[in-house]
Automatic annotation (TrEMBL):
This is AI-2E family transporter. Belongs to the autoinducer-2 exporter (AI-2E) (TC 2.A.86) family. InterPro entries: AI-2E-like. Its main location: membrane. Keywords: Membrane, Transmembrane, Transmembrane helix. It comes from Vagococcus luciliae.
Length: 350
């Protein structure tokens, strides 16, 4: 038994795999606060990257930059809750009303609309969508679990960034303790996690912002109703956080609204615009923001999203790809999609 333990300690791969299993077991036991942990990590990583970028340009002290950034976040949240969220709520309800009113008053001689009118209860669907929108925005604006989670994450990330040097020194003190080897493996896995999971999350966030800006500019040129742009911007941003699938999903509501605005012609324009934005994301943003190891085939992306959504819910759509990339990095899986795969030859039996 002692000899087995010594061999495990000497084998880095086996030991780190065991440490990873222990960490995963611990996360499973505290799964009720997993949202708090994930949100704290994402906020901390993104804000640290922002602070480092501003410090690099302005040479201002990092603590001062961090404090100013958090003050701006608090001001933004205040105006969002008091001004923009009510406006967003009204725009969403009005958009749902406009779409259903249009389709109810559509050409009754059209066979498609005849079939829809017979088989789809518009009033019932409208009521359900309106009720759903009310529930969503009531949850966001009320002091509920998600609001409390976000506030706690913001506070935790603030103290981590302000005391970053102290927190780092305190953590390194464990390296020389009785659990020094375990602590070093946790630090190794943590560094891997930040360098893969964090980078992908940051890239998704930047891509979501760029996609939202480009799409809204396109909708303005297409003369979409101005009173719906804020609601559409939020929808596009949230869906853009989902790799690949988010762009495709956003086509459905945008096409429905485009048809109410300008008919089939605007639907075609929307599809062309989405294709162009997706091409910009695939061929310009992804190679620029992500390393080659995060470049996954679309088939794998959809499979990962399906499984991660099944096990982790809505969070799975956001963290599924970064978590998978983290595992690939741990396993040293490196694939160059530009080179043809070389399959092992299997000798046929004589």
């Amino acid at each position: 038994m002692v000899d087995l333990w010594r061999r495990m300690k000497a084998n880095d791969s086996v030991r780190r795999t065991l440490v990873l299993l222990i960490i995963c077991s611990g996360l499973y036991l505290i799964r009720n606060i997993l949202s708090l942990i994930l949100l704290t990590f994402i906020l901390t990583y993104l804000i640290i990257r922002g602070v480092d970028g501003i410090h690099h340009v302005t040479k201002l002290p990092k603590k001062l930059v961090a404090i100013v950034m958090y003050l701006l976040i608090i001001i933004f949240l205040y105006f969002s809750i008091t001004v923009y969220v009510p406006k967003l709520f009204n725009q969403t309800i009005q958009m749902i009303e406009d779409v259903f009113t249009f389709y109810q008053k559509a050409d009754t001689n059209n066979k498609l609309y005849e079939w829809i009118a017979k088989n789809v209860g518009f009033n019932e669907i409208k009521q359900q969508l309106t009720t759903g929108a009310k529930v969503v925005f009531t949850t966001i604006t009320s002091i509920g679990s998600m609001g409390l989670t976000f506030v706690m994450s913001l506070i935790l990330s603030f103290f981590f960034i302000i005391e970053k040097d102290w927190v780092t020194a305190f953590g390194q003190a464990f390296f020389k303790s009785k659990i020094g080897l375990f602590s070093q493996d946790v630090a190794y896995l943590g560094k891997k996690f930040v360098n893969t999971f964090g980078v992908v999350i940051e890239a998704q966030f930047i891509i979501a912002i760029v996609n939202t800006i480009l799409t809204i500019i396109g909708l303005i040129f297409m003369k979409f109703p101005q009173d719906q742009l804020l609601s559409l911007a939020l929808m596009i941003f949230i869906l853009s956080l989902i790799p690949v699938a988010g762009v495709i999903i956003s086509c459905i509501p945008l096409s429905l609204i485009a048809y109410t605005v300008g008919g089939v012609q605007d639907v075609i324009y929307i599809l062309i615009m989405i294709m162009i934005i997706h091409a910009i994301e695939s061929y310009l943003l992804n190679p620029k923001l992500m390393s080659s190891k995060t470049d996954l085939p679309i088939f794998y992306v959809f499979v990962i999203l399906m499984f991660s959504e099944k096990f982790f819910g809505v969070w799975g759509l956001v963290i599924g790809i970064p978590a998978f990339v983290f595992l690939l990095d741990l396993l040293d899986v490196k694939v160059d999609h530009k080179k043809p795969p070389v399959l092992p030859q299997i000798n046929s039996p004589k």
